[in-house]
Design brief:
By secondary structure, this protein is mostly helical. Helix content is 55%, strand content 2%. A hairpin with a 2-residue loop joins strand 1 and strand 2.
Length: 329
């Protein structure tokens, strides 16, 4: 029997923190509420899946996959749990197109879990630079250290052990189970939501309803479980996510009708932009506060954000101040 993992808790602790603070992706968090009787009646047709509707959906997904699936993504050409863990951490909050080359570069530098575990954090973050959300690189290295010390260098294949790894939340744990080990599990993320909302719910109508009536993940679960029945876990989820990605472009992102939809915050001028700039500069060598702020062109109105970025990076264990100079850990 598959385990149910809701995307509302799919982020790792680090990524949840990013969403709830300045550098997070949520500018407006749409939490589900209770709908009125009239609003519920508008989507009664989608309360339970029927065999014909499920077969129709499966056919659409598989037909799209056969003709247009992203079969050549590098992490889809391996079953190595370490490489899949790397890809899933990279994909947590970064577009596929940006991940592809960085994934190859990262594996060239750290080809296996032992190499990553014994590498300097500064070297890991240097390779990670440009991906954003640099804590992911740190936590990935921490996870590799745990895997080497606790699991003899083998990525665990049970959800509890995976979720205990630094930076691995329920979604990432589920993805590793499915894509590395082909173990059935239930994942919900934005592409999956788009596919089910578009097919089984009237997404345009749902968007017109007030926030309280938008579609909660628990309403999708019967359809998700029915459609996954009898499918190859690994390939089905590849196909499903690709189909959902396509629908988001064709239908103006049906996942906006989800009660859990959040909007990506702007990068320009954000705290995470400052954090990234600080790390890139400190990779070149240590700096005093004054030298660092001058080199980054920090204005007086931005000093608060600059100081918050320094404090956050130090708290996250990525930089340290020694004798009045900031440097990489």
């Amino acid at each position: 029997m598959s385990r149910t993992l809701l995307r509302r808790s799919a982020y790792s602790p680090a990524e949840r923190h990013l969403r709830l603070t300045g550098p997070g992706r949520a500018t407006k968090d749409s939490a589900p509420g209770s709908a009125t009787a009239g609003e519920v009646r508008r989507r009664e047709h989608a309360e339970r899946p029927t065999p014909p509707s499920v077969r129709s959906f499966q056919n659409e997904v598989w037909n799209y996959w056969k003709k247009n699936g992203r079969h050549d993504l590098p992490w889809r050409k391996t079953k190595d749990p370490y490489k899949i863990l790397v890809s899933e951490v990279m994909l947590q909050q970064t577009q596929v197109s940006r991940v592809i080359e960085k994934y190859k570069e990262f594996l060239h530098a750290f080809p296996n879990v032992e190499t990553l575990a014994t590498s300097k954090l500064s070297d890991v973050l240097k390779v990670w630079s440009g991906m954003g959300y640099n804590r992911r690189g740190k936590y990935l290295r921490d996870a590799a250290t745990t895997i080497v010390k606790k699991y003899d260098g083998k990525v665990p294949r049970d959800v509890a052990s995976l979720r205990a790894l630094p930076g691995v939340g329920p979604y990432t744990a589920s993805a590793v189970l499915i894509f590395a080990f082909n173990i059935p599990d239930t994942m919900i993320e934005t592409n999956v939501r788009s596919a089910y909302i578009q097919h089984f719910f009237n997404a345009p109508a749902a968007l017109r309803l007030n926030l309280r009536a938008r579609i909660a993940d628990k309403e999708l679960l019967p359809f998700i479980e029915a459609a996954a029945e009898g499918q190859d876990p690994r390939t089905w989820h590849w196909a499903l996510m690709d189909y959902g990605s396509y629908l988001k472009k064709r239908h103006k992102n049906p996942s906006r009708a989800s009660a859990h939809y959040v909007r990506q915050s702007k990068f320009e001028g954000s705290l995470r932009q400052v954090r990234g700039a600080i790390l890139r500069t400190l990779h070149l060598g240590s700096r005093t506060d004054r030298a660092l702020s001058s080199e980054l062109g920090i204005q007086s109105s931005e000093l608060g954000k600059f100081e918050a970025a320094l404090a956050g990076l130090a708290r996250d264990g990525m930089i340290v101040k020694r004798k009045g100079r900031w440097g990489m850990c």
